[in-house]
Design goal:
heterodimer; A: 113 residues; seven-stranded mixed sheet; four-stranded antiparallel sheet; B: 113 residues; 9 strands
């Protein structure tokens, strides 16, 4: 199984550009989420989804959009990139909540100049 | 959202047991206690989880206090490969809340040869 796949692994943007970070899972997981991790910090939740067509905001949603049209995919869109969005982004999925364990992707390193 | 508190860092000697504490005094009855670890330059990986009873798996043991307001992750024989940041998080069983996970700073474990 591929698990959770994130693309690209690295990306450099100029301020004001837009882009989409891709996240796909092949485990038929209902729950998916996006986190950002700044240097020396823990993970902070951006957006999450508990099923296709259902999304909700996390701790730091400003500047990011998500949609969940299929169970497999959960893309994260940066509408107008800012230097403050320079970070490592992780996608995670799980079968459900509570006692279900999370599976993480390997991350996308994003730099905004 | 229930929060967790962990020491910022801990040190251990190789092949000795390590006890990583976590306080979660506002835990609710529907929260599971999860532990993840993050090796340098990687995404977090699942270690163990539990609800009320102590749990063992091939990686570690989880000891949960009787009042559930604290827990301890036990690595029975630390190896150099166990050097990582360890996160203790609470995961709700309720449908939508189960997707909303709050990571703290974690405990950075260093292992000396």
């Amino acid at each position: 199984n591929a698990g959770v796949t994130q693309t690209p692994k690295f990306q450099v943007l100029k301020t004001g550009q837009s882009m989409t970070l891709q996240c796909a899972q092949d485990m038929n997981h209902e729950y998916m989420s996006w986190y950002r991790q700044d240097p020396g910090m823990g993970l902070r939740l951006i957006h999450y989804s508990v099923g296709a067509g259902i999304t909700d905001q996390g701790e730091v949603p400003n500047g990011y959009n998500v949609s969940r049209s299929t169970t497999e995919d959960f893309p994260l869109r940066l509408l107008s990139a800012a230097p403050s969005q320079t970070s490592v982004y992780f996608c995670a999925s799980s079968y459900g909540g509570g006692g279900e364990k999370l599976f993480f992707g390997s991350g996308t390193q994003l730099s905004v100049l | 959202d229930a929060k967790t508190t962990q020491p910022n860092s801990m040190e251990s000697n190789e092949e000795e047991p390590v006890h990583l504490p976590c306080n979660h005094s506002t835990i609710s009855g529907t929260d599971y206690i999860h532990w993840y670890r993050q090796l340098p330059s990687q995404g977090p990986e699942y270690v163990i989880h539990g609800l009320t009873s102590n749990v063992n798996n091939r990686m570690a043991s989880l000891a949960i206090a009787e009042d559930r307001k604290s827990s301890t992750l036990i690595l029975h024989r630390a190896t150099l490969r166990d050097a990582a940041v360890y996160y203790c998080i609470l995961r709700d069983s309720f449908y939508n809340q189960g997707g909303k996970l709050i990571f703290g700073q974690g405990t950075e474990l260093s292992v000396k040869p």
